[in-house]
Amino acid sequence: MADQAMASLVKAPPTMSTINVHQVHLRKLKLLSNLNIHHSLRFPKIHVNHTTVCCTKLTPWEPTPATYAPTIDAGGNLLKKTSNIFETLKSEDTDEAPATNSEELSDTKNPPLMQFQFLKWPMWLLGPSLLLTTGMVPTLWLPLSSVFLGPNIASLLSLIGLDCIFNLGATLFLLMADSCSRPQNQAQTCNSKPPLSYKFWNMVATISGFVIPLMTLLGSQKGILQPQLPFIPFAVLLGPYMLLLSVQILTELLTWHWQSPVWLVTPVVYESYRLLQLMRGLKLGAELSAPTWMLHMIRGLVSWWILILGVQLMSVAWFAGFAARSRQHHSSAASGG
C-alpha cells in the first residue's frame, strides 16, 4: 500500500501540468478567435472635408468686438510701467475723466444766455411799477384824512405804515435793478465800489438831514424857539422822515459793503420819496397849527434835499460818462493790440 501511494504521488504532477497546458491553450484559441472577429468587422473609412466659413458681417444680436489701441508716448513705451496692467488702464481712465467732467460742468454752468435775458426783460417794467405802486399811489391818491386822525400815536403809526410800504417796494426795486445790472455771464465778476469822495459827500448830506430836525427839537424843548411844540406833534410831522432816513443809511452801507452796482441809484430813490414826505409834513403842519418856525424848517429841508438830489443826478451823469470813456479806452487798446 505504501508503495502504491508513493507511486501515485510521483505520477500526480504530470497530470496537473497537462491540465494547465490544455487550459492555457484553450484561452489562447479564444483570444485569437476574438482578434480575428475584430479584424474582420472593419468599417469603411469616411473622409470628411473640414471647410472654413469666413463671415465679416455680424448678426444683430452679436456685440461688436472691442479693440484697444494703446497710445505710444514720446519714449516709445506702449504702457506706463506699473505693477499691474489694470492700474495702467485705470490711470488712463482717470486722466480722461477730468476732461469729460469739465466739459459737462461747462455745459451745465453756461446755460443759454437768452434764457436769462428773457427773465430780465420783465424786471425793467416790474421794478418801476412796484416803486410807483408802493410809493406814489398811497401818498398822492390816498386821502390824508383817512391816515391822519390827530396829533396822537395812531396817526404816527399810520404814517409809518405808509413809509414801510414804500420801503418794501424800494427794496424789491433795488434787488431787481441789481439783477439787471449784473453781467449775463455768471463767470464774470461785477464788483462796483463807490469812490471815497462820494461816500464822504453822501454821509455829510445824510447827517445834516438828521442834525437839523434834532437841533430844532432841542431848541423848542429848551425854550429857545417859541412857541414850543410838544413831542407828539413833532413826531407826527418828522418822525417818519427820520425813520426812513435811518433806513436809507443802512441800505447804502449794505450796497457799499456788497459792492452792488445800485449804490448810485439808492439815494435817488429814497430822496425822491423824502420830498413827498416833507410836502406831506407841510400839509399836516397846517392842520396841527404848527409854529411858523416849524413850517420854515420843513421848507428848508425840502430845499436841502432838492439840492442833494440834484447833486446825485449830476454824479449819475458823471459816472455814465466815465463808464463810456473807460469802455472806449478798452476797445481802442484791444484794437491796437
Automatic annotation (TrEMBL):
- Top-level taxon in the UniProt lineage: Eukaryota
Q: Which UniProt keywords apply?
A: Membrane, Transmembrane, Transmembrane helix
- Tell me where the transmembrane regions lie: 123-141, 153-177, 198-219, 231-250, 302-324
Task: Spell out the protein name for this chain.
Answer: CYTOCHROME P450 FAMILY PROTEIN
Name the species this protein comes from.
Salix purpurea (Purple osier willow)
